[in-house]
Amino acid sequence: MWRRSASFVLDKHQNNKPISLTPSIDSPPPHSMADENSNPNPISAYYQTRAAHHGIVTSDWLEQAQAAVRRYPERDYSVSPGRPFSVIEEFNNWRQQPDLAEAVAAIRALAAVIRASEATTMMELEIELKKASDTLKSWDTTSISLTAGCDLFMRYVTRTSALEFEDFNSAKSRVLSRAEKFGEISCKARKIIAVLSQDFIFDGCTILVHGFSRVVFEILKMAAQNKKLFRVLCTEGRPDKTGVLLANELAKLDVPVKLLIDSAVAYSMDEVDMVFVGADGVVESGGVINMMGTYQIALVAHSMNKPVYVAAESYKFARLYPLDQKDLEPALRPIDFDVPVPPKVEVERSARDYTPPQYLTLLFTDLGVLTPSVVSDELIQLYL
Amino acid sequence: MPDVQSTVLEFVNKLRKRKIEGSQATARCTVELLRSVISQHRVPHANQASALIDAVKAVGEQLVAANPVELAVGNVVRRVLHIIREEDLSLTTAAMGGLDLLDASDDDEDVCNKGIGYPAMSAAVVAAAARSTLRPPSLQTLLEGTPESATVPYTSSSGADSESKTADKSSITRKLKHDVIESVNQLIHEIAGCHEQIAEQAIEHIHQNEVILTLGSSRTVLEFLCAAKEKKRSFRVFVAEGAPRYQGHLLAKELVARGLQTTVITDSAVFAMISRVNMVIIGAHAVMANGGVIGPVGVNMAALAAKKHAVPFVVLAGCHKLCPLYPHNPEVLLNELRSPSELLDFGEFSDCLDFGAGSGSPLLQVVNPTFDYVPPNLVSLFITDTGGHNPSYMYRLIADYYSADDLVM
Question: Compositional bias (Polar residues) at which positions (chain B) (predicted)?
């Protein structure tokens, strides 16, 4: 109890710190994922408070403090002398495509690193890749799928080199071709997930959807194409207007859509048969990190015995284990109310929340239909 | 082959007419039928695994279509397919090394040892690809792309070992069938012995002076309770009679014959008596991949009562009952409606149930479902022949027993 109130006081101190520490927000947020904004306040106040109270410097806190210090020089870090290649530029180029998931863009950017690399041994290549991967990760520390994608690729590269090839060039070309094919895997993953979920959508069902996930949209599109009769309730998804965007797209497919304000979820939960959400990241416990509001909806659905289905590609599995909402790195984004808000009124600007696994029924991934407990198994198999 | 065809058709008929009762008997008959299909199937020299798989799949589809609610049939067919794939894989990894054909017990070891004296790319890459066909898709194999089919190892082995291996190849032919049939025999043995395996664990779960509740009649539960009795535990059993078939009465008789103190109660009395019970033990008809249980009608009620009173709900299931599918409308799709005559005496109710009178469809309807679905959050423990498991662990067992390619038949 005392911790919370005390941190409230320290938070205020934190907010009075000079703004020079914050890097400018890079580009206008893309329409779908709200978490891609750079974190304006890189050092989480929460961790600082804990460290101060307990007198312990946690490793995360240290890492973040170091990252904050390194932030500006970090920009030039990826540009080695004599080579005008920047992995961040490459990444941004790939990210522009609306259909490409963030992790896929990261992997493609790393593939470009390999292509441009002048290394002659696998070890050198790995070191270069590690540097590039760290740069990408630190560019946006809040994005989970970005981190997960980079980690996945690094694991793959280190595993490939060890056993199977004696010739460096053939190994390099194999890794390169794999990385370039990964973009197709992303689209294929969405198709696979859509096929797996078709059985769960029956005629006459009502589906509640939160947030504009491209995977969930693919599922609904395929169901509509298979002539299934169902209707969709979209939450408004303030402040991103995801609900309106999704409703427009679904209306084009002739699917009956109803828009709800976020507060009307419990009111309508009675007539809902199932809830479908996407995921920004799937964590080790089997829970998901998704747009703000998902936890709320999952709680309501759970209390009314409605199944909650999560559709996520497998490269979103991340090695995180949040114990509560504040364990995530805060991804803040500006919220504008229509009336001006006086400066001394605080606004909760976090963009995402964590839904614990006990409120989720099933996860649809390209690895198959999984229960939340399978996720940690998969992660262990990959990372151990 | 006409001989096999006629046995298949006979079996399909039996399934369709529900002549075979009980999942264990069904599973055994199915496996024995598949064994004769395999042994009598003439395999070509190349791609024999695929030929076998196709043959088994063709028969399996017929069997599953005959009785889709009896999930043990589909489970066992998929087990056999998995066995074929596994044996094929172990034979090819053995053959590629140019060593004597041995039952490669550990695929990985073999591959590493052979990687040295070989064109490194072909052997190891192909082996890795073959390995990944057998494992379910995972994060590890995600970036390895679509694995080549199991037929590739054949072409590469024939290419690399062209000189002296023709004699070995024909012995490979015979060996695959032989190995598969051996494994299938093991499977039959496993299915037949599942009761003993499960009953062995009884002593760990049933303690002195406990009260056990069960519903309906299950041979597994009977053996389980009797095994505990043998080990000198004294406990009491409440048997819910399991209307409308009243099989609980039969179970009660059996238990008394073995010397156990038994109480018979109606299904409606379960909620009333649950507070006096220490543990609920039931036998399952099938266990789904998410840990949900298909059991005789009434178990959902017992499970809810147990949850309400924090009584452990234990489900006994042999390995042939583990189904790799996820239930998406189990109350309807995995259920069977039996004859209304079990509920109502047709003579007394003939005027209500008459189709001829009035508007053509009778005002009185009778619904007599056979099965109930229990969601995984109500189950405390599964006891299979491999031991006790959490419901959230069932996917692991399923990944071990089945291949991902066989899920859709």
Answer: 140-161
CA distance A287 to chain B (A): 14
Beta-carbon pairs below 8 A across chains A and B: 70
Residues of B in contact with A170 (CB under 8 A): 121
Q: Distances in Å between the alpha carbon of B78 and those of B48, B63, B163, B320, B321?
A: 18, 12, 37, 10, 12
Cβ of residue B332 closer than 8 Å to a chain A Cβ: no
d(CA B239, CA B384): 22
Amino acid at A116: A
pLDDT in tens, B59-81: 889 888 888 888 999 999 999 99
Q: Is residue A45 part of a domain?
A: no
Of B192, B226, B255, which residue constitutes the final position of a domain? B192
- For chain B, the domain total comes to 2
Q: Which chain B residue shows the shortest CA-CA distance from A316?
A: B139
pTM for the predicted model, two decimal places = 0.75
Low-confidence ranges of chain B (pLDDT < 50): 99-121, 146-166
**Domain co-membership, B169 together with B280:** no
Q: Are residues B257 and B307 in the same domain?
A: yes
- How many whole angstroms separate alpha carbon A190 and alpha carbon A250? 17
pLDDT in tens, A108-135: 888 888 888 887 887 888 888 888 888 8
Considering the domain architecture, whether residues B140 and B90 belong to the same structural domain is answered as yes
- B 380-409 → A contacts, CB under 8 A: 392-393, 395-396, 404
Cβ atoms of B135 and B141 within 8 Å: the answer is: yes
- Judging contacts by C-beta atoms under 8 Å, the chain A residues touching residue B141 are none
Q: What is the CATH number of the domain that holds A183?
A: 1.20.120.420
Distance between start and end Cα atoms, chain A: 38
Taking contacts as CB-CB distances below 8 angstroms, the residues of chain A near B290 are 362, 371
Note the pLDDT of residue A364.
Answer: 93
Say how many residues make up chain B. Answer: 409
Interface check for A131 against chain B (CB to CB < 8 A): the answer is: no
Whether residue A99 is found in the same domain as residue A243: no
